[in-house]
Amino acid sequence: MTENTFPVYKVDVIVTFYRTEVLTGQEAKVFNKSDLTPTPKPESVRRLYMRILQLLYRFRPECHYMVPLLENIQYPAFHELPTSIMSVYLRMCQFLPMCYVYDFALNDLLAPKAKKTLVVLSGIMNFLHFRKMRMDGILEHQARFRADMDRLQACTKNIKQAEEKIAILTTVPAEQQAEHKELAAAISDLNTTTVHEYQEVNRMNDTIAERKTAIAERTQKLAQLKVNITTMKEDISKIKSQIVESPEELKSQMEKMRESLKNIKNSIEDSDERLVELQNKVQGVSQSDAEIQLMHSLLQDLKSSMNNTKQWQEEVQELVVLYEKQKKELKNLGMEESQLKRALGMKLDKESKQQIRRQKMKENKELHVQDVLGQCDHVHQKREEMAEQIQEVSRETTQLKSKMQSLRDACCKETEKAQALYESLLSSLEELHKSIIKQIADLNMDMSNVSTNF
Q1: Of 90, 144, 243, 365, which one is least surrounded by beta carbons within 10 A?
Q2: 77-114: buried (b, 16+ CB within 10 Å) or exposed (e) per residue?
Q3: Left, alpha or beta for 246 (phi > 0: left; psi -120 to 50: alpha)?
Q4: How crowded is the C-beta side of 163, counted as CA atoms within 13 Å?
């Protein structure tokens, strides 16, 4: 016992631990330090070992006293005490090696010693601490497992919803399949027509460019002709001023000039007609450009829809990857679940202990509730008495208030009378003051007269 792998606790620590963690009810109240030191009581030590076995293996204390009813055993009632001691001894011998206590003997139950019992109890206490730690870890692991299972269920639901959405998006309904086919054929026709129209537009643009160059050359020629005509007119005016020709030559020249003007007018009309034709062609090209822009917008819409479908396909691939990852997590969680099922037995032991404690707590609560109800009745009676006293006090206060009101009314009347007397006295004093001032003024006048006479 000198090479223990656990500390030997003090008696007070052991007593408080077993009173709070192992024993319940009246047994916890009765269990004291005197049961272990200086000489341990065999009955209390046996009872404590029975409760420890009940906590760990659900082996109730009544089961230790059960004697097999055989024909060869006479008077089985005499065998109840030794059978209980031997059953406790055998089960403690099986349990204590897990607590690193290997020298437990029968004498430790019949006539236990203080040091040996403290060592055994401290070893069991160390084991119970370790058991509590592992139970807390298992409970945390179970909580995490439940949270992971909830997440997995939510992920599976989301995956199913995503698969349903993908199926809805990828599959065309029967009602719209004909429209889908028509739209696909129309889109293919539009693509072909747009290609042909782009080619025709390019051709038209080339022809328009050629015609614009021709029109620019003709406009330049017309401008030169106009300039030449103006110069010719100026020359004619100068020549007319300088030379006087015969009328026949003038007529011949005028005719030539008229023919040239007619030719110029005809060329201008032809160019105007060609300009009108070119303007009509340009208008047709602008209309074709508008149609091409509409087709281009439709093609852009189709491209956006194709991009959306590509994005949906990418999302589907991501969801498939997530589904595979979650399958792997499911396998891991299944392994953890198999481990946790093994730990559930230990949890059930603790739950049975908690149920026993709850029953005892309920009984204590019922007793406490009955005491509280008796106190509530007593308080209710006192409350009724206080209510009667309060009513009497309220009556007295109403009477006092009425007296105070009457006194206030009387005081108001007396103050009004005093105010009237005060005002009358003030008026009389003012009149006296005025009369005194007049008399003083008269006396001053008389004194001035007397002084003048003297």
Answers
A1: 243
A2: eeeeeebbbebbbebbeebbeebebeebeeebbeebee
A3: beta
A4: 10
Instruction: Judge residue 162's burial from the number of C-beta atoms within 10 Å of its C-beta, 0-12 exposed, 13-18 middle, 19 or more buried.
Output: middle
φ and ψ at residue 32, rounded to 5 degrees = -135, 180
CA atoms within 13 A on the CB side of 356: 15
Among 144, 64, 138, which Cα is nearest to 349's? 138
What residues contact 275, with CB distance under 8 A and at least 6 apart?
Answer: 215
Both tokens assigned to 99: 């607590």
Predicted confidence at residue 242, as pLDDT, reads: 61
Token couple for 32: 């004291």
Contacts of 353 (CB under 8 A, 6+ apart): 55
Residue count of the chain: 454
> 189-216: per-residue pLDDT in tens?
888 888 888 888 888 888 888 888 888 8
How far is residue 84 from each of residues 87, 93, 97, 104, measured CA to CA in Å? 5, 14, 21, 17
Position of tokens 């110029």? 264
What parts of the chain have a pLDDT lower than 50?
1-2, 244-245
Cα 260 versus chain centre, distance: 94
**For residue 125, what pLDDT is reported?**
92
Residue 278, Cβ density class (10 Å: 0-12 exposed, 13-18 middle, ≥19 buried): middle
The alpha carbon dihedral of 54, 60, 65, 66 has a sign of negative
What's the confidence (pLDDT) of residue 1? 42
Report the C-alpha gap between 143 and 136 in whole angstroms. Answer: 11
